[in-house]
Design a protein that fits this description.
Radius of gyration: 16 Å
Number of domains: 1
Strand order of the largest sheet: 1-2
Helix content: 40-55%
Number of strands: 4
Largest sheet: 2 strands, parallel
Order of helices and strands: HHEHHEEHEH
Strand content: 15-25%
Shape: globular
Length: 97
Amino acid sequence: MTKFIKKNLIHFLTKNIGLYIVCAEKDNPEPVLKKSYPKELYDHALSKKYFGYEFILESMNAIEKAVAKSLGVIESKSELNHDAIDEMAQQFNELSS
């Protein structure tokens, strides 16, 4: 994904974009969000959100399950932030109106 973003950065900078992350760092996701995208793209984005995270063990392969277990995940868990998802969608819906 990083390679794709860097290759197409100039194109993205001409668009209205929103950036988001899904990660288990729910207490302070902003540094993770900033590190996930080039600074120029991060600064350009109209919206930046943390969408929460989800571990669905039944859908994971053995390596993914091992990583989840190393993080202390022993059962499926969903902490998606539907309000943040809806908020970003609303922001972009208003742009197209």
